[in-house]
Amino acid sequence: MVRKRIHDEPEKKKKNDNDSDNPLIKKKPSPKGTVSREWTFITHSNVLLVIISAIIVRFILYKSCGGWLISRPELSTPLVSIDRLKEGILLIKDLNDPYAGDRVHVTPIMMSLFPTTDDRVISLVWIVVDILSGMALSMGSIAYSSARGDSIEQTITIATNVLKWYLLNPISIATCASLSLSVILIFLLSLFTTAFLYQKWFVASFVLSISTQFSLYPIVLLAPLINRMEGRRMITVIVFLLSLSALTFINFMLGGISWKFVEHTYLFNVSVEDLTPNVGIFWYFFTEIFNHFYDFFLILFQLNIFVYVVPLALTLRNASFLNLLVSFALIAVFVPYPSLSDATVFFALLPLIDEKYWKGMRHLLVESCTILACIILMPIMWHLWIVSGSGNANFYFGVTLFYNVALIRMAIDLVYSYVKTDLAEKCPDDIEEKSLIYFD
């Protein structure tokens, strides 16, 4: 028996819908209509209120406890620490090699972009960049919602929710107040997401190459990008590779015509030599493991994030947005040096999920409450372990492990709900076979 496709993009679903009485799904919104929705969103009163509130909260938090947040392992890792970046900048100004020691792990391009190390100036720049990240994600949500056939009111509501879920997310606020370099990476990923949803293949490929220069693991986002850009897949990959090569060469030139930066940036990610505690799963395991097993398990852990790329790309080949969303969750869980900020884009894009898929999720309440409880418990367990000495590393690692399990379970639940709901719609008579997945 030949089955119909069960994973369709919003644009494809709309074409196959036979309900001619609904004017929203007769045809795609015109470019003029899309622009009007964007302008309506920008001029909406709630948008201005959310932006002003986000700026005030970030400024107050930075002034009140910014110094404490900079030292938090949940927000600051060797790759995104502002202190390490400033140390590299000062070394360059004194004509010293920033990679002579083992403190600096950012690329030469990143260090060359910062003309000052003044925290007050950096904090203002960070706030502006963070606001732009939220606006970029909201604009991308307008394009996706419009293509899905939502009304103007629904589109504005969804875009406003995306803006709120990012700018008013406590993790995003704390990340900005801690002056973490994750703010820059999130901005790049937000631009990539917007170009992805607008199907701007050149912009998406170029921005993704910059993100990959910042951290190797955003390269997994290339799979959903290829699925999204039908008819331009080959040129998308070519532009990505050429941009990546050009940026690497620029790093080579800015690094004093030396490849030394590769060892301290990209290979540092791969070798996992710094076992400073963070919210990931690498540091505790490799602290406890025997040295002669280190290389074997290091290869397994590094491959873990990549083995899901091909199965997800095949299963969700006609649902590229869901593929993108799950890929963000994989990055937040399986990279060697994660922070809480790595999941902010994933959380911000959740309002874009159709309501029927929310209803199909089995453990949404448990997963959400677990993530919230773990985030609250992380600084408590850290205090018990490091400050008061009444606990041990298991206290902190246990909380971070539950956080990662809950986050990846939420991603799995989304895929399960999507497949089950679409299968029930496409094959309503096959009651006994609804738990199976059929491909063409």
From TrEMBL:
Q: Region Disordered: which residues?
A: 1-33
The transmembrane segments are 47-70, 121-144, 165-189, 201-223, 235-254, 293-314, 326-352, 364-387, 393-412
Query: Pfam families under this entry?
Result: PIG-U
* Membrane topology of the entry: Multi-pass membrane protein
Sorted keywords for this record are: Endoplasmic reticulum, GPI-anchor biosynthesis, Membrane, Transmembrane, Transmembrane helix
Compositional bias per record (Basic and acidic residues), positions renumbered to this chain: 1-18
Any one GO CC term of this protein is: GPI-anchor transamidase complex
Where is it located? Answer: Endoplasmic reticulum membrane
Q: Give the metabolic or biological pathway.
A: Glycolipid biosynthesis; glycosylphosphatidylinositol-anchor biosynthesis
Instruction: Choose any GO biological process term that the UniProt entry carries and state it.
Output: GPI anchor biosynthetic process
Instruction: Give the family per the record.
Output: Belongs to the PIGU family.
The name this protein goes by in its record? Uncharacterized protein
